[in-house]
Every structure is written in structure tokens, then in C-alpha cells.
Amino acid sequence: MAIVGQGVELRLGDVLATALPEAALWIGEAKMLIVSDLHLEKGSAFALRGQMLPPYDTHAALVKLDALMRRLEPDIVVSLGDSFHDRGGPARMDGRDRALLTDMIGRCDWVWVEGNHDGRASETLGGAARETLHAGALVLRHLPREGAAPGEIAGHLHPCARVAGRGSSVRRRCFATDGARLVMPAFGAFTGGLNICDDVFAPLFPEGALALVLGTQRVLPVSHERLLAD
Amino acid sequence: MDAGDPMLPPLFADWFASRGWTPRAHQLELVQRGLAGRSTLLIAPTGAGKTLAGFLPSLIELAPLADQGPRRPHRLHTLYISPLKALTTDVARNLEAPVREMKLDLRLEARTGDTPPHRRQRQRAYPPDILLTTPEQVCLLIASEHARVFFADLKAVVIDEIHALAPTKRGDLLALALARLARWAPQHRRVGLSATVADEADLARWLVGSTPPPSEGRGPGGGETLSEAKLAVMRTRQTSRIAPPPSPSPRGEGVIVRAPPGAQPIVDVLDSDARIPWAGHTARHVIPDVYEAIKRVKLALVFVNTRAQSELVFQELWRVNDDALPIALHHGSLDVQQRRKVEAAMARGDLRAVVCTSTLDLGIDWGDVDLVIQVGAPKGCARLVQRIGRANHRLDEPSRALLAPSNRFEVLECRAAQDAVAEGALDGAAPRVGALDCLAQHIMGCACGEPFDADELYAEVISAAPYADLPRAQFDRAVDLVATGGYALRSYDRYRRIVQDPHTGRWRARNASVAQQHRMNVGAIIEADMLNVRLAHRAAARATAAKADAPRPLVPGRRLGQIEEWFIEGLTPGDTFIFAGQILRFVGLREDDVLTVPAPGAQEPSIPSYAGGKFPLSTFLAERVRQMLHDPKRQKTLPPQVREWIKFQKKRSVVPAPEQMLIETFPRGPKNYLVCYPFEGRLAHQTLGMLITRRLERIGKHPLGFLASEYAMAVWGLEPMGDVDFARLFDEDMMGDDLEAWLAESALMKRTFRNCAVIAGMIERRAPGEAKKTGRQVTFSADLIYDVLKQYEPDHLLVQAAFADAGEGYLDLKRLGALLKRVKDRIVHKDLPHVSPFGAPVMLELGRVPIQGQAEDAILEDAAALIAEAMS
Fold it and tell me: Which residues of B touch A193 (CB under 8 A)?
């Protein structure tokens, strides 16, 4: 593992991957950009039920991803599940955001790895749909599996890390990894998180997980001894 | 006027006589005014029979109805509102005595958050004659169907402790609710019961509202419009003093009645022989004197400013308690059962002293207190007077108070407060500008009650004093906020929470479910997330796993009380802190439980305090302290140690004139310091520190940190700072772009925003019983929501509301602005070889408090550093 620029480089299976502070994973040798849990249209999902969250979450997430794509020029972009907050999401998306997303999908090989919230985004928006994506030694799926072989990259859990010090504490999104497998942070603008110390993570990382915490400017590796429960 | 006054019906005159009481002049005054349907603000000290005065006219009006037997229809006649649940139930109990003794056939009932649903339902179907309740319940009633019918016969609203409610967000909501009641029950009068305040006219304006709502036309006051003329002077008689002729702000003046102020309190400042510390708030040196004072009286209340301090003083008192006097502790974090026990013991006369925080400032009197001791500076004069009022409730005897300063600056502050009390001078804040989040909540509440017309509602809203200056455009934005979230991007137009009837143009809640959602989220009290503090013990042997030698796990045991989540979040296992009278070691967190074990032998907790003082030094007292520092005559009366300290300051540096601000720069160790002494309170200094460090950074001084105390602000770095252009550095323009830039990245704004978003109904507050974990996730996503909103719509109404809150409460912007204006061209700079006598206390604080202004990332970087090192 090494700190490279703003990111942290690590080996998963045999593949070199870079965790980026934007909550994305970059596989340089395949020119593949992976993001997870976009939860697009979460704001409008709440608005439907009477809680008027700002209607800018979809746009914020897409603009961030678009900027990453322009910088890295990936051949493949993988959205690792829970791309929309609910099944009605794609239909609620406004024209501007739909146009932006369609344009992004058109610029690369776009893969929707489908999660439990997804409503067949590929059918209306283009791109390919997969349940699992194999890329060399890597296995990309939405739900992490207990006892998965090295090289699994998954999402779904929205890992967060809490670190205390200087009489205060910080809670941020993070990648969770033990060097063999990795759980992606959520990419969506309104997606909260589950503490990496939660019991859910224990069977996935029997030896404890290293948190690659998303700082404002760069990714900061924090060992599990320094992590606190909520 | 005597008891035979025709104003008092024989039944009531007899009742007073049977009690051996004579009605007081202000009580009769209130009867006369009440029966004439006039609103009144009664200013009276504790023990003046305020509450009875408020209710007498209602009881007199209701008495004849009582003769009509049990089948008469019950209608709501009087609504009593107090800020405290406990006070509401207590007043209900006290009121039952005269009702019973005069055999009045009345129903009086309390309604608080604790009232079971079936009783609340019955209260709505069969309103009692007198309903005693809280502001939140009034908001709920307004948001319920048929509210207009419920309130239609209302004759009187009595608001207790109105001085405590009016300057808060709860007060904003209540003022709006009262405006609504004025529409539904234009005949009702209002009675405000208040302690002595600095600006009575403001409070009176708050009570009666400024202009009557136009459509159904008549304001509270009883069949008459509350015109300027009507509100003009109402003369009184005898001992009860009434307002002087209308001053420049006549509106409201004519409704004020003042009870005689009672005997002048006797306030002493403790002149301890012990060495007065330079800094700190432990007040250890005064403990023996405080203990002696307790020994001499029957029951003393020992007020302190923070919960942490109450813990410390309590512990120190017991350390010297050789006579084993029953001394108890009372503060907001203690278990409710524990607090009730202490209150009951006070009432029985079983205690000699109670160490307490502002939890005992307001409300019920729990016993015959004959001495109030204030440990640490009083911070404000009005609060001090209120606290002093807790002693001795017989009006003709003076209350006694003892002020015990905990450091040298506080000696000055206590003396200033003592003088102010003697002069009867009070500090007061400017009247509040009503909060926009509260307005949004009220609008939603109205839509849930009965459909409203926007023009009518606007007229009604601006009749409430806090919203008198609300522009129509802001009101319309608030309506839009309620309807669709109020975003520039109109994508939520199809998900409206309130909809407009196409024919009448009236707004109503879209459906029953959004109305229900609103009712679950009523009120302006946002409780900090609290965790239970529990003593942990080892699990029983058989319950644990096979390994016999493995230590058994700790499990949660007895609950000691509750503590703010943010405090615990800053702890790491092994840290010690002081709570419920003992030093505890933090072991870990389990769900909502903080597991702790006693830390015997620990003399000092490793984490010194779990709450800063809530209230900063008031502008009023600060000014008096600045004056005192420069007045040689006043200094003669100070303790010798303090006199000498000031003398040395004169010799080594300078003592600034009251209108000046002193800045000192000096080296110390490897660092260079800049200390300024604005005397404007901790909050304003904190904001100043944030802004000054930004500016120093820009001119290449690379400041490393800063510290704000009540009196001073210090910045340090490696570069010498004596050559800075101070006029430029402290220029008023820092309130512009610098402030804006700093706020954009401040965690404080996120917290403030979350509260506004909850009050305005954008984010739901946690449902009762819901797990804490969810609460944390809500907090987290509120931050995310703020980030997105700030980026895409920085002028959104709720961002404005959050900014207003931060400026008002946490940042003290108004005061900082006034400070910068005041010291313009009046900065005195001394470049010194070493720290001055005034600077020393500030330096001493350095090791004790967390340093502000550290970026959150720095915490992460600390944690990441080791790994980074290992990997490079």
C-alpha cells in the first residue's frame, strides 16, 4: 500500500487499485473507474413523502462523477449498485440530469452492477447491466459475501469511520479493506453511513479492517485500533 | 383598596379573610383590569402572589357559572402557559386550593407532553374551564382540526415566566400562536407574569402584539382595538406602581403593572483571605468560606454556571464537610428520579445546601431558601437578580446573596454585578427578530388546523411583535418553503405539502399524513442527543464463554444520568471525567449506554469539563468592568491582591481606558503571542479569534492557534506579531468576506442548520423510542444536505435562518460588530518583553481548554500519521 498523490494505492488480488478522495476506485491497468451507491434521486424520494430535501443531490453526484471521468478518461465506468435510491428514481430525474447522465454513459462502456434498490436503469438510460462483473482477478458485486475469494470489490454497506482526537471527533466516509477485499464508500450526495466498527463488518473482515478515510483533500489510512464505534 | 373593595366579590373577600390574607394592591389592580377585559403585563418579584393575581379575574368571572350546576357546558375560558412542564402541573395543583375552598364548580386541567392521549382527546372534546399547558401544546392545538371552535370562547391567556419565553424560539412560536388566537377569540385578554426586566415596554409589546389582524379586526384586550390611545397610560393607586406616562415607545406601556419591588437584596462579595487564583474556574479557594456560609443558614442554594463546575463544587464541599451536612447536587444531566428526590428533600427541609445550575433558575419553589451563593461570576445581572430571588420569599425581608469569584477577573465582575444590583440596573438584550424556521413551522401548523388565506395570515403574522418587520416577500418564501421546500429548481411542485384550493385560494395540508407528520415535529426545543451514563460491572461468570481465564466482559449497570453525545464522542477509552459527583473512567459505548467505572484515587479528571458556560458575560457587565479597571476610586474597594495585580499591570504594560482596547505582543518560549482585551464575552471573542487568525495567515504570520476567554483573546504563532498594522487587522471589514468564508467551512453552521431544518420540518426529529443509531445517521445526512444546499442554493431561506441563528447565539456577531466599531482608532498596542499581569491568566488557560480553530482533517491526519510513516 502506498500514498500516491491524493489517493492510496493498494493491491487487491493481484490488481493495483487507487482509492480516491472523491469516493471512487481507479483501476489503472484496465482504465476502469468504480463508484458505488450513488442513490440518485434520494431527495425526490423524500419529497414524495413530504420531506422536502434539496433537489440537487442527483446533480451534485453526477457533476462530481463527470469531473472524475474528464480527468481520468476511463474506458469503463462501473456503478456498483444502488445507483438510484428507489425504483421510481429514473422516472423522477429531471431533463438536465438525464441529459448529463446519458452523455456520460455514451462516453464509455458503462456497467450497472445491480443492487437491491435498482429499477433496471439500463433499460431507460443505456449501458450494460450485470449482476456480477469479473475483471481479471477482480470480482465486482453489490453485496459483499462472507468468505469471498481475494479480489472482491463490493458496496452496499456505506462504510464510515469515526476518529477522535484533540478533544473532538470526526466521522467520514471511508473505504474498508483488509488488503484482500474492499468495500466502497457511498458516492451519493445524501447517503449517510454505517460505522465500520458495526457488527455487520466483522464477518467480512475477521482480522479487522483498515479504513481509507476520505479527507477533504486526500485519502487517509487509519488502522482499526484507532477507529471508534458511534 | 382593602378586602371590602367592591372589586372583590364577597365569596373571594371571605376566602382571603379565611386565609388571613389581605389582597395586595397589584392583585386587585389585575382584577379590575381583567374584568374590564384589559391585557396586563405584571412585573413582580417572586413571592408577590403573581400567579394568583393572574388567575383571580378568571376565577371571579367563572364563579357565577359555577352555580349553574354540573350540566352547564364546559368551554375553555382561560389558557395558562408556562415554559416548564413541572411548573404547569405545580400551578394546577396550587390553583385547586382556592377552587376547592370556595366550592367553585370548575374544571381545571393540565396538558403537557406527559398527558396521556386519551385525556388529551377528552380535553379537546370537552374543554376544561381552565387549561394549564406549555407553548408546544398550544401549537399542537392550533394544528388540530376544529381548533377555531376549541378556542372560540377563550376569555383570558395567562403567560407565566414570560421574560424567559419571549427571547427564545419557543417565544417566536408562541407569539405566532397568540396572533392566531387573536383571530379566533378576539375578545380575549392577556396577562403576562414577569420577573423584573430591563425593557418592560418591549415585553409588553410582545405580550399584546403590535397591530390587530385586519379581517376580523379586534385585538386581544376585550372588545376594543388595542390602539395607541387605549394602551396609553392607565393610572393606578396606592402602593402598586404603574408605568410612567408613555415614553418614546408608548405602545405596550399602558399595559404594565408593577408590584412593589420588595426589600432591597443584600449582596456580599466573598472577601476570602485565601490566595485568589489568576485563572481557572474551579473556585477551590473559596470552598472553606462557602462551607462556613452554609453552616450559618438553614438552606442555601449554591448556583454555578456549568454542570461540570457544579460537580466540582459539590465534590469539594463534601471534602470539607466535617459536620456531614446534608448537601445535595441538582443539574440537568442527573437522572430525573434523582432530581425529584433532591427537590422533595428540599421541600421537606431535609437539606442544608443544594449545588445547582440554571435548572433551579426558574419555576417552582422547593423550600425556604435563606441564602443564595453564586460561585463563579454571575455573567449577567438579570440572571443574578433572578437567582437572588430564590432566597426568602417574604417580600418585606431582604433576600441575601453571596458572590464567590473564582479568579481575579471574576472579582471585578462580581463587584460590578454587586453595584448594579444595588442601583437596580439590569442588563437586557434587544428584542428578538422572529426566526424564519419557526415561521415555517407555524405556517404548516395553520394549514393543518384550518385552511388559511395568505393575505390574512401575513397580516396576522406581522401582528406578532417578533415578526412585525417581516417583509411580505420573506413571508411568501416561507409559504413556498412549507409547500415545496422553497427551491429555485421547481422540481418539487408536484409534491406539495400544502395545497391551494382553486376556488377559495386558501392553503391546507395536502393530506392527513403530512398533517400527522407535522404534529409529530411541533416545537422549537431540539434536545441534544443524550446518552445514558452507566456504571459497568463484570458479567456474571456463567453467562460468558468457555475460556475461564479470559476477563469477563463489562455489562451496563446502574444509570447515573444522561450526558450529551458530542462530549462522549470526543473521548477515547481510558479518559476520565467528572459526573454525578464522582470521577469516572470511560470504558466504552454500547448502543445508548456510556459504560464507565469509578476511578478511585484520581484527583483530577483527564477531560476537564463537559460543557462550557452557556451564557457569555453580558455587554452591560462588561462595560462596568472596563469602567472599574480605570477608576482609581473604585479600585480602592477591591481586595488587596486584586489591587496589586492591577498596579503591576500599570507598571508592566498599561491599563486601558474604558473606550480603548489593549493589545499586547510578547514572546514566550519558542512562540510569539498576541493578546487583546475586548471584555466582550467568550462567544464574540471566539468569533474574533477565528477571523483574526485567518487574517494573520493571509499576511504571512502563520498563527498556530487561538484561545478565547470571557475577557481576552490570544493568538500565537512562531513569528513575532508586534509589527502588524493593528488598525487594519481589527478593521470592521472582517465581518464581510472573511466571516462569509469562514462560516462556509464551519461545523457550527451545520449544527445550526440541522436545528433550523428540523424546526422548519425539512428533516424529521427522532420519533420517541427510536434507536440512537438512527439519530446519528440523521445528523450525518443533515451535514450532507447543508453541503449540497450551500453549494447549489446559498441564499435558501433555511441557510439564511441558520446564519441568523449562528450570528445571534453562537457567534455573537452583533456584539463583535459593536466591538470593532467601538475600538476603531482606539487601539493601544504594547510590545512587551514578556507576558503582562493581565496576560498571565490567559496563558494559564492555555493548557486547560481544547484549542479552537483546528480543521477536522487535522484529527484524521494525526490518526493517519503513523501508518503513513510506516509506509513511506
Answer: 777, 780
Instruction: Provide the domain limits for residue B146.
Output: 10-227
B753 found inside a domain = yes
Please measure the distance between the N-terminal and C-terminal CA atoms of chain A and give it in whole angstroms. Answer: 27
Residue B469, domain member (yes or no):
no
What mean pLDDT is predicted for residues B437-466?
96
The region of weakest confidence among B52-56, B457-461, B588-592, B699-703 is: B588-592
| Helix (H), strand (E) counts: chain A | 5, 17
Mutant choice from B489, B491, B591 vs A, greatest count of A C-beta within 10 A: B491
**Mean pLDDT score of chain B, rounded to an integer?**
82
Tens of pLDDT, residues B178-210 = 999 999 999 899 999 998 888 899 999 999 987
CA distances to A99, B337, B477, B516, B695 from B761, in Å? 32, 33, 15, 12, 38
Q: Testing the interface with B: which of A52, A162, A200 to mutate, by most B Cβ within 10 A?
A: A52
The minimal CB distance from B788 to the residues A57, A166, A193 is found for A57
Length of chain B in residues, anyone? 872
Taking an 8 Å cut-off on Cβ atoms, the answer to whether A52 and B492 are in contact is yes
The residue that leads in pLDDT, B180 or B856, is: B180
Residues B315 and B396 in one domain: yes
Handedness of CA B627, B630, B633, B635 (dihedral sign): positive
Residue finishing a domain among B423, B440, B471? B423
The chain B residue lying nearest A192, using CA atoms, is B781
* Residue that finishes a domain, picked among B396, B423, B450: B423
The pLDDT, as a whole number, for residue A77 is 97
Whole-angstrom Cα distance, residue A151 to residue A138?
Answer: 5
Q: How many angstroms away from the CA of B777 is the closest CA of chain A?
A: 6
| Residues B298 and B203 both lie in one domain | no
pLDDT at B285: 85
How far is the alpha carbon of B250 from chain A, nearest alpha carbon, in Å? 43
The residues in A 46-85 lying below 8 A from B, measured between CB atoms, are 47-48, 50-57, 59-60
- Using the Cβ of B510 and the Cβ atoms of chain A, whether some distance falls under 8 Å is answered with yes
CB of A91 within 8 Å of a chain B CB? The answer is no
Please give the CATH architecture assigned to the domain spanning A2-226: 4-Layer Sandwich (3.60)
Pairwise CB contact (< 8 Å): B495 & A2: no
Which positions in chain B touch A172 (Cβ < 8 Å)? 860
Decide if B129 contacts B74 (C-beta within 8 A): yes
pLDDT for the residue B17: 93
Q: Is B174 left (phi over 0), alpha (psi -120 to 50) or beta?
A: alpha
Query: Do B177 and B278 share a domain, yes or no?
Result: no
Residue A190 is nearest to which of B607, B776, B784, comparing CB atoms?
A: B784
Q: C-alpha distances in angstroms, B411 versus B26, B279, B404, B683, B743?
A: 38, 11, 8, 21, 35
Q: Is residue B510 part of a domain?
A: no
pLDDT tens per residue, range A166-210: 556 788 999 999 989 999 999 999 887 888 988 899 999 998 899
Considering the domain architecture, whether residues B752 and B818 belong to the same structural domain is answered as yes
pLDDT for res B538: 80
Residue ranges of B 745-774 with Cβ closer than 8 A to chain A? 761-764, 773
Statement to judge: residues B115 and B221 lie in one domain: yes
Range with the poorest average pLDDT among A81-85, B390-394, B542-546: B542-546
How far does A133 lie from chain B, in Å, by closest CA?
A: 30
Run of H or E residues at B692: helix B682-698
Domain locations in chain A as residue ranges: 2-226
Domain co-membership, B112 together with B176: yes
d(CA A43, CA A94): 12
* Residue B495 to residue A222, Cβ atoms within 8 A: no
Tell me, yes or no, whether B179 and B321 share the same domain.
Answer: no
Instruction: State whether B310 and B163 are in the same domain.
Output: no
Residue B396: give its domain's CATH number: 3.40.50.300
Q: What does the pLDDT read at residue B403? A: 94
The verdict on residue B443 lying in a domain is no
Cβ pair B864:A213 closer than 8 A: yes
* pTM, two decimal places: 0.82
| CA of A173 vs chain B CAs: smallest distance (Å) | 10
